[in-house]
Design goal:
InterPro entries: Amidase, Amidase_dom, AS_sf. With about 450 residues, this protein is α/β, with parallel strands linked by helices. The protein is about 40% helix and about 15% strand.
Length: about 450
Amino acid sequence: MISGQPLHDLSIFEASQLIRDRQISPIELTKSLLKRIDEVEDQVHAWVTVMYEEALRSAQAAEEDISRGMVRGPLHGIPYGAKDIYYTAGIRTTGGSKVEPDFIPSSDATVITKLHTAGAVLLGKTTTTEYAFLGGAPHTRNPWNLNHTPGGSSAGSAAAVAASMALFTLGTQTAGSLSRPAAYNGLTTLKPTYGRISRVGIMALSWSLDHAGAITRTVKDTAIVLSTMAGKDPADPTTLSAPVPDYTLALGQDIKGMVLGVPETFFFDGIDPELMKAMRAALQVFQDLGACIIPVKLPFSFEDANVAHWIVMRTEAAAYHQDFYKKYADRYGPSIREALELGQLTPAVDYLRAQRIRNIYREELLDLLQQVDALITPTAPGPAPEGIAATGTPVFNVPFTCAGVPTLSIPIGFTYDLGLPLGLQLVSRPLSEELLITLGDAYQTVTNWHQMRPQIKDG
């Protein structure tokens, strides 16, 4: 415990500084998080596998390196979790499915390798909906109210950070599976530009829509993790060759004069009243910080692009799962089975038409994003829905996942009666992650929503 704060409640930024200053050790930090897992996992159900011995060995190695002055960077000795669709060598990787429940990869995902090289400590694998699709929700619960969903598909990844069982976690987004869980759990996530992070060694859902990313407490933490995760991977031809900046240099910058566009339709139609109030307050914060807020019109192709997204997603998922589905159709859950069968029935002309609509929409969206520094919308239409059989709607995330542009979700408040988190989404041009980090960090510098921690109890 540091100044009355449990070690498991630290942010990456805080823990990294304490490790560097030798005030805490990676072993102490890892033991604190493993103890926290023992205390609350039976209520939250965020983990598929917890690697007690392996994590402590990694922490010991990190401690020995650091004691010799061999500090690899800000993630050295920082414990994290990985969504159970990331390959981890020698560690069971289920994909949240009964299709291959005992699959053990022989190699790590590229991102896991990068984090290992940076000295991060893998605690285990977190729950996911089946193969990161919408259906087959795990039994994971929202730490802010155990009667509510944590969102999905990165359910366990969000719940683990919210419940202080990991300092950050890895997730993926094909529709809204990073943004929505982050918003539902009072957390921060940056879904990067398509191709900014390698997807080698991550179970695919839809090749042209899948994004890898991390769920963290703060924008500062997001900047640290993204600096390690991003970059060209020769094994992934979709990764971008643009140099990776030090994203932490985007922290603490002035946002005076930046232009934020607020869509006039769709994103504010019928949203939760408490969310609307929180959004107005957040917009005022950005204005007080010097940003200019203007109304904007959504692209003409906006609604068609949403339909196209699901056609592409289902069809590509059906192609990826084709061989396994022929052998093990009875092992798939009903939700993903229905989606895969719809994908199998999609004519090639419909898939190609959907991709054409998507390309037109992307160009129109990029034109809009040239007129503003960022768009600002709610991350979801409201707080986490009650029940855990479903994971909520990604309707506010799909338009930007479809276009492959970067988005940042940050917490902006809580509902009054149930104390459920609410989230705001910032959207910008491709490879504008630094701009989003600057905006989000400026907001978190003058607000404290990201510092809140849940009291884990039934609603």
